[in-house]
Fold:
Amino acid sequence: MAAVLVPMTASAHLLDRWIPKPSAWGVSILAWLVVGYWIPPRPQSKFTRWLILIVSLSLLMFLLATLFPDMF
Structure:
C-alpha cells in the first residue's frame, strides 16, 4: 500500500485540474487501491471484501476533502 502512495497523490493532483478536488482524491484512491490488489503478494482477503474496504476508504477521503479542502 505504501508503494502506491506517491502515484496516488500525483494522480489526485493531476485529476484536480479537470474535476473537483474531493472527487479527484476519491477516484485516485479507489483506482490505485484496486490496482494495488493485484500487486504481489496478493492480500489474503477476497476481492469483494477488499472492494468494500477501498470503497469505504475512498468515501472517507471524499468526505475529508469536502469538509477540509485546504488540508490536501
